[in-house]
TrEMBL record:
Lineage top rank: taxon: Eukaryota
Name of the protein: Serine/threonine-protein phosphatase 2A 55 kDa regulatory subunit B
Keyword Repeat: yes
InterPro entries, per database record: PP2A_PR55 (IPR000009), PP2A_PR55_CS (IPR018067), WD40/YVTN_repeat-like_dom_sf (IPR015943), WD40_repeat_dom_sf (IPR036322), WD40_rpt (IPR001680)
This protein's UniProt keywords: Repeat, WD repeat
Pfam families per record: WD40
Gene transcribed to yield this protein: PPP2R2D
Any one GO molecular function term: protein phosphatase regulator activity
Gene Ontology CC terms: protein phosphatase type 2A complex
PROSITE patterns for this protein: PR55_2
Protein species of origin: Geotrypetes seraphini (Gaboon caecilian)
Amino acid sequence: MLLTSYCLLMVPILKPMDLMVEASPRRIFANAHTYHINSISVNSDHETYLSADDLRINLWNLEITDRSFNIVDIKPANMEELTEVITAAEFHPHQCNVFVYSSSKGTIRLCDMRDSALCDRHSKFFEEPEDPSSRSFFSEIISSISDVKFSHSGRYMMTRDYLSVKVWDLNMESRPVETYQVHEYLRSKLCSLYENDCIFDKFECCWNGPDSAIMTGSYNNFFRMFDRSTRRDITLEASRESSKPRAILKPRKVCTGGKRKKDEISVDSLDFNKKILHTAWHPKENIIAVAATNNLYIFQDKVN
């Protein structure tokens, strides 16, 4: 009987599988936010970092997980009086006491933690004057800033709203020094974009290493790159075809009307379910990463 049971034992067959990467947290910083966290930024002192939600920004020590300091709080006593929310925040790359945060009203506040423990008063306030002639029902929605990024030099900062990217000089608060239209052809589509909630999409933006070019995402798995010195721009597409080894990305163009050329795509044919919200640029090399839905694409300018 015992011998029979031994004979029936089956040895498992080893089958090769794809490598899976699993992340495990080293520390968990909990119970400090009531709302969804929209930003995390590590300080240049390498000891602290900030986390931001819709109404508050907290300062953490990397070694202390159960306690943080509230440095910005815009929550009104009566929530019915709430007029704006925090949309993004980031530390200055070199000055550990300076950080910025943007709002849903299209404004940016620069704060200095040396002024007070609670930075309820900003050091600088950046806002572009609105043209009354162009105001519409969607003006406040599309002016909401979805991302803010300091340049690596610390001289400039970049903001992304729904239709454009703006570059600000930290020494000039009145208006941006550069404005780049990302997908201006969508202005005529704002009604339908509002109905399908795409108008509330939050696009990120990023600098290249020398701060000479910027990148941000769009719809139809398109992403845009702008050269700051020449003001030239290009639209590229992240797709399975372009991800093949040594494949060259071809510029794409969107046709807004009239006769469409062979290499153009009509604005009415854009797929708004395919969107690139997250982008990153290598700090030292010409390597970029774009996230398109559940796919991560990594491109570089040339392969040796």
